[in-house]
From TrEMBL:
Highest taxon listed in the record's lineage: Bacteria
Gene3D superfamilies on file: RutC-like
Biological classification of the source: Bacteria, Pseudomonadati, Pseudomonadota, Betaproteobacteria, Neisseriales
Organism: Silvimonas iriomotensis
InterPro entries named among the record's database cross-references: RutC-like_sf (IPR035959), YjgF/YER057c/UK114 (IPR006175), YoaB-like (IPR035709)
Protein name stated in the entry: Enamine deaminase RidA, house cleaning of reactive enamine intermediates, YjgF/YER057c/UK114 family
């Protein structure tokens, strides 16, 4: 039987869950909500880097990412500019971008990640 490890456990969710050498990450957002889409994407990606490092993984081991944007038509290019600078060449994960209303109207982007250890 394999164990389940939870990190940054709160009353409603854990930021990271690790099971069977797979990392499941809750949605990551920027802390500086005054930034534009590109700036918020850069911050959210930096959070992904920190979280993966905490459990012994990194962006080259990302299997899948779902990116949520409140306005795909107007924010996709700015998000993609930050993404393209961040993603590891040759290690691009499966990726989906979805238009969705986010929990706070100031959020420009949110990312969920599944990665290998």
């Amino acid at each position: 039987m394999s164990s389940i490890q939870r990190y940054h456990v709160g009353p409603r969710m854990s930021e990271i869950v690790v099971h069977n050498n797979t990392v499941y990450m809750a949605g990551q957002i920027a802390e500086t909500l005054e930034k534009d889409t590109r700036g918020q994407t850069e911050e959210a990606l930096a959070a992904v880097d920190r979280m993966l490092a905490e459990v012994g993984s990194d962006k080259t081991k990302i299997l899948s990412v779902t990116i949520y944007l409140p306005d795909v038509v107007n924010e996709y290019d700015a998000m993609n500019a930050a993404w393209s600078e961040w993603v590891a060449p040759g290690h691009t994960p499966a990726r989906t971008t979805v238009e969705a209303r986010l929990a706070d109207p100031r959020y420009r982007v949110e990312l969920t990640v599944i990665a290998a250890l």
